Sequence to fold (365 residues):
Amino acid sequence: MNFELDEIFIEEDSRASALARRVIEALSPRVPIRFVADARAATLADRNAADPFGKGKRRMVIMRRRGAFLMGCPAASARYACCGYLVLALASNCPMDCSYCFLQDYLADNPGFQVYSNYADAFAELGRLAAGSPERQFRVGTGEFADSLAFDSITGVAREFVEFFAAHRNLTLELKTKTDEIDGLLSIEPRGATMVSWTVSPERVYRTSERRTAPPSARLRAARCVLEAGYRVAFHLDPIIAYPGAEDDYPRLAEEILDTVAPEKISFVSMGSLRMTPALRTAARRRFPDDPMLLGEDILCPDGRYRAFTPLRLRLYRQIADRFSRAGAPVQTYLCMEPASVHRRIFAAEAPTPADARERLCCAG
Fold:
């Protein structure tokens, strides 16, 4: 998969970094490269552009991260049943352009595609996490603010983290992607410490709403390949969108997943409905006015996000969860950004605590 860039900005402090050298070697002279003293200005939105967010995606900014790399999942809240996920921020924004993506709102002011040259500083943070609670398991993902593998053929960062996590028995790395960019992973021995997860949607959603992503069939083939190479695999059905035909398409997608990966080999499946803050809803509909997936009926929920009517969400969740429960082997399935009351209605059980969920998801598969 090739993603087009208009320009690359490299902070002077990052000029000699291994990351900058790899990017320059891979992309120069095809893409103009500028060196700047402080790259933060290059991340800002160009308000004169017709599509400031879309333009920002095409501008790579290599810079130092000035804050911590490791943080709690931004979706975590006392309102929701929580999976205990930790986020490792190695980049910001994504070269793909899904119409429903929350980054359109979250990164509206700083849409430049940031890649952090001092990513090796994250190893010290991870080391402290592992050593501080050696009896606990932690699932750490790099795919919250940027796709984990979209530019990995250029940056080569994933390899170093796979090798680091392989040496720490209580850390599990999750690489989340909508690509089939797995070549860099196939020559590494993950030793069970890394799972690669795919966000997957029905073909209809892919064609209308997931620009520059790999087709769902290619994502599933890639999952099969990394499984055979020793990685664990997981899937995110998120966002689940309540459109006409969804009740046929999502169970069919579950069948396709199970036809590709045996149920006992799936670490987990997460499910989450399309949810949008008013600002995200406005931004997405402005950028993609003809996308039918953004025009369904929804209601404003108590947490300030628009979602499909509860009966529609519950029906889709039940259909999908039921198919995985009948797969012939247990498949860990959980809900993302839904209250505990919804969890009880889908699974007829109380939602696990974040600590329990973290342990289960780290050890499954």
Q: What stands out?
A: The chain has one domain: 68-112+119-363. The first helix runs from residue 18 to 27.
